[in-house]
Design brief:
about 475 residues, mainly beta, six-stranded antiparallel β-sheet, binds beta-D-fructofuranose
Length: about 475
């Protein structure tokens, strides 16, 4: 394979060339999903940010288009969102509704002048193919906040206003507007709440129904930037609570993690999914600031997670997010092999042969009396990724120490762990692509997203048990549907 194609994912979006980070401006409009993203067209490390652009009919196969937003005299183009202005509140759309991007203009410190982050607008009347920057930019600045970025905007029906959630240091600030041009400060959230081990970035706020009932709660997603004092690098937390158009009030004190893996950051959800569809679809940047600039791809860097549907569940008065891959993915797989009621013991492991471009593994495990059990995904004879469940500790850990190239970062080979609620029965769904593994535990109650850089995707999957037995109630491996 040529260098550009080594580690190139088959199912995940990655830019053809050069550097990418956060997903931006996720929106559905006129039968297309749009994915914009932080993009440096001048190289494969982070640099002067533009908005790259790709479109998709089904959220899985993306068509990369021209760069959408270029830097200008107000600065480079940091993260932000896009909405459809259905009612022409901006006055940009005389003929028919179009797209408005609300993004951060970022100015590096120049000649001792304070660096600045300000919110600006651009709009498109041709389905996102070309963009006109608003001549009144910027529309929102703050003289004394150096971190003032990543606007996520939505239409709040109850108050008939646009609401902006904005990352403002170690907090999220909410602003409101009738027209996207004039913004009024409403409140600031975050003090004494959640994890503060890094700067807060890339918020998202939306309402979800609980267990598909009429009862609803608001979810606030907040990414936390890398901080070398801690081991985990950049990661994403969320809050569940209420929002009245002015203030967000959480209903819990604990810290809730969106993903227990290292490689899901800055994710946000799509705007303007039609009501008849009704899903809240989310995707994240599948990397970690700790080593994102060093991962061993050549000529391009980074990929997005697969798109996931977010749902809210209630258990014993507690609310938590559940995430599952969008159903559009199903047609990319064909069933390869199924097993039912198979005993996995310390004497003999159970093996699935899977030598394909990408693969899916589904396991339902019960009656566990082993001390440890799990699976090894063998990429080649010497490279593997291992998932081990320690029954006594109730912990699932993923080891990528031997998964292929790991020496570009001290942090990369370290274990990734999830505390399980119950390790005596376990449902797992795993998608393995050329350079990643996405793990969904118990129907998406917990997720673990992890990059890997093996020479080959997979050869075999081996299930094992230590000091006892495990019943594989159901196991299935699936392979690319074109095979
Ligand atoms: C998050 C982030 C954002 C910022 C962008 C710059 O990964 O740091 O806060 O807008 O990346 O590329």
């Amino acid at each position: 394979i040529n260098k550009l194609e080594k580690y190139r994912p088959a199912l995940h979006f990655s830019p053809k060339k050069n550097w990418m980070n956060d997903p931006n401006g996720l929106v559905f409009f006129k039968d297309e999903y749009h994915l914009f993203y932080q993009y440096n067209p001048h190289g494969s490390t982070w640099g002067p940010m533009h908005w790259g652009h790709a479109v998709s009919k089904d959220l899985i196969v993306w068509d990369e288009l021209e760069i959408a937003l270029h830097p200008d005299e107000n600065g480079t183009i940091f993260s932000g969102s896009i909405v459809v202005d259905w009612n022409n509140t901006t006055g940009f759309f005389n003929d028919e509704p179009g797209l408005v991007a609300i993004f951060t203009h970022h100015l590096e410190q120049v000649h001792g002048k304070l660096a600045g982050q300000k919110q600006s607008l651009a709009y498109s009347i041709d389905k996102g193919r070309s963009w006109i920057k608003y001549d009144g930019n910027p529309v929102l600045a703050h003289p004394s906040k150096p971190d003032f970025r990543d606007p996520k905007v939505f239409w709040h029906k109850e108050t008939q206003k646009w609401i902006m959630a904005l990352a403002t240091g170690q907090s999220i600030s909410f602003y409101s507007s009738p027209n996207l041009k004039e913004w009024k400060f409403e409140s600031e959230f975050g003090e004494n709440c959640g994890c503060h081990e890094g700067v807060w970035e890339c918020p998202d706020l939306f309402e979800l129904s609980i267990d598909n009932s009429n009862n609803k709660k608001w979810v606030l997603i907040v990414s936390i930037g890398d901080n070398l004092q801690y081991d985990k690098g950049s990661r994403t937390q969320y809050f569940v609570g209420s929002f009245d158009g002015k203030e967000f009030t959480p209903e819990h004190e604990d810290i809730k993690w969106l993903d227990y893996g290292k490689d899901n950051y800055a994710g946000v959800s799509f705007s303007d999914i039609p009501e008849a569809d009704g899903r809240r679809i989310y995707l994240g940047w599948m990397s970690n600031w700790r080593y994102a600039n060093q991962v061993p791809t050549e000529g391009w860097r980074s990929q997005m997670t697969l798109p996931r549907e977010l749902e809210l569940r209630e258990k014993k008065g507690e609310y938590y997010l559940v995430q599952n891959l969008v159903r559009e993915l199903d047609t990319y797989f064909d069933r390869k092999e199924e097993r039912t009621e198979t005993v996995i013991s310390d004497k003999e492991s159970t093996i699935f042969e899977v030598d394909y471009e990408y693969t899916e593994i589904i396991l339902s495990l019960k009656n566990i009396n082993a001390n440890k059990y799990g699976l090894t995904i063998e990429h080649t004879d010497s490279q593997n990724t291992t998932i081990t469940i320690d029954v006594k500790e109730n912990v699932l850990s993923l080891s990528r120490e031997k998964s292929g190239v790991v020496d570009f970062s001290d942090n990369f080979p370290k274990l990734q762990r999830v505390c399980l609620k119950d390790s005596h029965s376990l449902d797992l769904r795993i998608i393995v692509d050329s350079a990643s593994l996405e793990l969904f535990i118990n129907g998406g109650e917990q997720a673990l997203t992890s990059l890997i850089f093996p020479d080959k995707v997979s050869k075999r999957v081996c299930l094992f048990a230590e000091d006892g037995e495990v019943n594989l109630v159901y196991g299935k491996v699936s392979v690319p549907s074109k095979n």
